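Appendix B. One record, verbatim.
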Amino acid sequence: MSILLAEVVPEGIIFGADRNVSWSREEVLHGNVVIQNLGHTQRSKVLRWPQRKALIGYVGAAQVGGVPTDEWLYDFIGRYNTFERLETLAEALRAEIEAQRRIDERTNSPEALILHLGGFELVEGICKPFIWFVRNAYGMDDRGNYTDIRREFQKSEEFWLYFPDTAPERIGILLGELACQFNPFWFHHGFDLGTFNTIEGFLKRAFKALCDSSPAHSLPLTLSAWESQVRMSILTYGAYFQAYRGPSEQFVGGGADIVSIPWPRTA
C-alpha cells in the first residue's frame, strides 16, 4: 500500500512517496479468500508531466492492465501530454482507470487504488492550485484504513474544500501562515495513516523546535527545502517498518521519490 504525501506550500506543490511495492495474490482456501504476500519490489509512485504541467501519485494496486501501475500512468501521461483543464484530465483518469480495473478484477474482489492529480490553472487572471482526488475507496476507519472498496471510481477536487470562502488572492497568505507554523497544507494516503500521522507530527514539532532554538536550522523558504521535509517524513516512516516489521511486511520503504512544480507567478 505504501505512503503518498501531497503538500501545497507558498512556493508550489510537492508530491512524495516511498518506493516499495507489495505483490500479493488472492487464493481460496477452505472456502475463505486468503491474501498471499509474494514479496516486494521498488517502483516510482509519483510522476510529473513534461514541462511541469501537473503531478500524479498513487497508492494501492501494484498493477493496472497487466503492467506496473507507474508504467500505466506513464502511458496515461503520454496520451494526455497536452490538456486544457485539470478537471477534464481528472475525469479521463477516473474513467480510464475504472474501465481497466474492471477488466483486471473481473474474477477478484476490488483492490483499493488512490490517486492524486495536482497542478495550477489560471482562473480569471489568478493562478490557483488544484488537487484532484480519484479513488475507489469510499470510506476510512478511525485508524486511517480504507473501507468500502468498490469497482466504481469517483473524483473530487479537494484543495478548495478547505478554503470554501477564501478569495483566491489570499490563498498564498494562508498557506504562508501554515508554513510558518511548520504545518504546511497536506494530504496523506497510504498504509496505517494513524501511525504515520503520529510519527510525522512528532517530526514537525521536533523541527519547529530546532528552528526556534538553533541557528543551524531555519524554516523552509524554498521549494527544495520543503521537498527535504517531505523526504524526511517518508524515510522516517520507512525506518519504522525496517525496525518493527518483518521482511514480508515492508509495506513502506525503499527510499523516497519527490516531484514538484513551482507556483507560476505570471500568466
